[in-house]
Amino acid sequence: MVRNWARQGRLDRRTIVVGADQNGETLVKALKVQEDSDICMLGVFDDRNDDRAMDTCGGSPKLGQGR
Q: What are phi and psi of 62, to 5 degrees?
């Protein structure tokens, strides 16, 4: 049963990163290159709407009021 759930993606760990800056991008990229990871990156939250926050962070969309 557990293997079946894993194949269906029901046991994936979903995560977000807070901060669409260089540190956030480094973290997102590090999580994405792990081949055997069960982490599903949902996006990056950042409510800043200025040059401190990127529109996309490591290929993940920026979410939040500052979009």
A: -85, 130
Helix (H, G, I), strand (E, B) or coil at 3: helix
Consecutive H or E run containing 4: helix 2-8
> Mind giving me the DSSP string for 14-52?
EEEEE--SHHHHHHHHHHHT-TT--EEEEEEE----STT
Specify burial of residue 53 (Cβ count, 10 A radius: 0-12, 13-18, 19+).
buried
Distance (Å, whole) CA 20 – CA 36? 25
- How many CB atoms lie under 10 A from the CB of residue 41? 19
Q: Note the pLDDT tens digit of each residue in 8-63.
A: 888 888 899 998 899 999 999 998 888 878 888 888 988 887 778 888 888 888 88
